[in-house]
Amino acid sequence: MSVSPWWKTDGVLGIPFQTKSALENEIRRVIAKYQIGDRVVGHDEKFLMCVLSHHYQWETKAGVGVAHLEKRRNHTPYGSSDGIWIVRVDGSSVDISWRVPISPPTHEANVHIAARYEILEQRNAAVVGITSEYLCPVCGRAIPADERHVDHTPPLTFASLIDSFVLLHQGMSYADVHLDEKHLSELRFSDRALAEQWQDFHRSLAKLRVIHKNENLARVK
Length: 221
Fold this sequence. Notes:
There is one protein chain. The chain has two domains: 6-96, Nuclear Transport Factor 2, Chain: A (Roll), CATH 3.10.450; 107-218, no CATH class. Helices cover 38% and strands 19% of the residues. The chain has helices spanning 6-9, 20-32, 42-52, 58-62, 107-118, 120-126, 158-169, 192-205, 213-218; strands spanning 39-40, 66-76, 79-88, 93-96, 148-152, 179-180, 188-189, 208-212. The strands form three sheets. It has a four-stranded antiparallel β-sheet. Strands 5-8 form a two-stranded antiparallel ribbon. It has a two-stranded antiparallel ribbon with strand order 6-7. Strand 3 (79-88) and strand 4 (93-96) form a beta hairpin. The two termini are 32 Å apart. The mean pLDDT is 90.
């Protein structure tokens, strides 16, 4: 028997949402009202706080207590996006995903996020020397600076590489890979020796290329 999600049964501030898309659209509408660096206020803050309080890491994220929420830019291996940050009463701050309370990620998904962060230096190196005249090897278009994505040249994919590393090369399960979850956008392997082994493994096998972001997002990972 399936259990209805909290946002349908309890609702947000007592108002139920019938679909996940409806809730996501409302969250995006609220966030879009603010500029980068703005403090979220009034009913908007209460609304987002209700959503974020269902985050599985809420107690860790809230820390000594929440002073207020701010809209900031998040920078991850996937690119940049607008996000919500908790500013604590002691002045410290931390990013928090509003998507996680709606669709909590599996541990395997978080390991993939951490693995991408661990090879960020390799991904960044792939775009060094790329100019405005560089043509996407997939679609043939020139790629503007803000639309350059780093991709794995087929037939290898990021997913196949991390699966091979964890399951075959290390003989582990994903449950055996422990994570340092200090920041959502900076998930890392707790075992730094394992991180270095993964970096070496990826460097030895992966062939990275720069392609247009639309082509990258359309690909099966």
